[in-house]
From TrEMBL:
Pfam families: Retrotran_gag_3
InterPro entries per the UniProt record, alphabetical: Copia-like_N
Name of the protein in question: Retrotransposon Copia-like N-terminal domain-containing protein
Residue ranges of domain Retrotransposon Copia-like N-terminal in the record: 15-60
Residue runs in coiled coils: none
Top-rank taxon, per record: Eukaryota
PANTHER family per the UniProt record, alphabetical: CCHC-TYPE DOMAIN-CONTAINING PROTEIN, OS01G0909600 PROTEIN
Amino acid sequence: EVESYNNDPLYLQGLDHPGAQIVSLKLTGPNFQKWSRSVKIALRRKGKLGFIDGSCAKPAPNSLKFEQWIKCDSMVVSWLLNSMLPELSEAFLYVNSTQELWDELTERFGESNGPLLYHLEKEIAELYHGGDSVAVYYTKLKKLWDEMTDMLDVSVCTCPKTCPSVKKNQELDQR
């Protein structure tokens, strides 16, 4: 019975409160990719990822779950605002939902991947083994690859070669 509550995205645990810091990294703007990855991991752990991706949809106002959804959504908004620099969080105080906040943050900080992608590609190309051990060198390289993969949102797909995802991945492979 307790397990079913823990899997419900509308369930709030005793330690869940509006002032909680769910990630240690504060959003500064330029670090959006790393910050968003950290936030997604934390929200997935808490069963609240659906509030940013829309999969935990707002129930109808006459639904029994409506008030609980509002409470949970407000809690997630609080967590996100607490994980930003104060001057950034003030700009987003008046959003109406977690998904609206996430969409605005993504639009403002996540869409200009071109320069960041170029910077990562340059870092990878210029990464020098130097005096580092193979393990340290590989760890640095893997971190950069993972950042680039996350930024590109490379998806694995088994559909026909005409699929937009397949075409996008083929274009990326040609780089």
